[in-house]
Each structure stands twice: as C-alpha cells, then as structure tokens.
C-alpha cells in the first residue's frame, strides 16, 4: 500500500479512483473499502477526508456534473445557434453523456445516495437546469420555464434510461436516439417545420 500522508493528493486520488470505478463497474461498486483498495490505501483512509460514504459519493458525482456542465457549455457556445438549437444541443450532450458514462450518470441522479443538500453538489447540479429553463423561456415565453424544463429533463432521462436498457430499440426499432430526441423536443418546445 502507498503512503496515506499525501493530504489533498490522497483526497483527489480517492475521488479519481471512485470516478474510474463508477465508469467501469457502476454505482453499486462504490464502497469505501473498494475505493480504498483500488487507491492503494487502508480501508480506513477515506474516512479522514470523507467522514461518510455519502460525502465520498457526492464528491464523485460532483466530478460527473462538472464534466457534463463543461460539455454542455461547449455545445451551446456561440451566437450562431438560436435558443431551440441550444436546447437540442444540451439534450444531445445529456443523452451522449448518459450513454458513455452509464455508471456516473446513474450516480449523479440518485440523490437518495448523495448528500443533495450539500452546497457543493447543488452548485454543480443546478446551473445546467437553470440554463435549460432560461433557454426554454426564450423558445416558449408563454410557459412556466422551470416546469417545461423539468418535464423535458424527465423525458430525456427516460429516453437515456430506456435506451441504455435496450427497451426503446426493441419497442421502436430505432437505430439511434435522434428520431426520439426530435419527437421529445417537438413535444416540449412545439413542432418545427422539417
């Protein structure tokens, strides 16, 4: 085992190890003992930095939210996209993240496993939702943007989950999520002439 006296380095290493573990094996694999073992430290070492299992899981989830937020910001940059196109870009990023990082995606939205009230987690999870609501206010000024954003998010979450389980492919015969995404956007933002 490696030395445990590296301070912030060990804290970051525990989080890095958790991120790699959740990506490889899913949220169920994220035990304190397994993270410590893979980080090369004693099973008690994580408790120095994360007094509870929830605190470590929340730190891992914050990394996922930070990555998703960075991808979303990159996808919506520039003045060339109207608000509807930006909502579509956010939705594609969300679905792509869910497909590529299934374990992290599962963890990020399991607030029953996380310290949801923790300021740091709220600060990383809510800005993306606020951005979505602001864009919806531009597309549908007659709506309650937070409600429409919540319904759209729930619909996207369902698409991500059902696609990941193979259910939507079976039910719809779709080869990709794009036709489903177009339908979701039309349902929540209004039909677009194609």
Give your account of this protein's structure.
This protein has 2 domains: 51 residues, Arc Repressor Mutant, subunit A; 130 residues, Tetracycline Repressor, domain 2 (Orthogonal Bundle), CATH 1.10.357. Helix 4 runs parallel beside helix 7 and helix 5 packs parallel to helix 8. The chain is elongated. It contains 10 helices and no strands. It is an all-alpha fold. It starts with 7 loop residues before the first helix and ends in a 5-residue tail after the last helix.
Describe, in short, the structure shown.
With 194 residues, the protein is an all-alpha fold. The chain folds into two domains: 1-51, Arc Repressor Mutant, subunit A (Orthogonal Bundle); 60-189, Orthogonal Bundle (Tetracycline Repressor, domain 2), CATH 1.10.357.10.
Share of helix, binned: over 70%
**Principal-axis shape:** elongated
Elements, N to C (H/E): HHHHHHHHHH
CATH H-level name of the largest domain... which superfamily? Tetracycline Repressor, domain 2
Enumerate how many helices there are, as a single number. 10
**CATH architecture label of the largest domain:** Orthogonal Bundle
Indicate the CATH topology of the largest domain. Answer: Tetracycline Repressor, domain 2
Count of structural domains: 2
Mean pLDDT: 88
CA-to-CA gap between the ends? 60 Å
Structural class by sheet pairing and helices: mainly alpha
Task: Give start-end ranges of low-pLDDT stretches.
Answer: 1-7
Please describe the biggest sheet, giving its number of strands, its sense, and whether it closes into a barrel. none
Number of strands: 0
Bin the strand percentage. Answer: under 5%
| Rg over alpha carbons | 19 Å
CATH class of the largest domain: Mainly Alpha
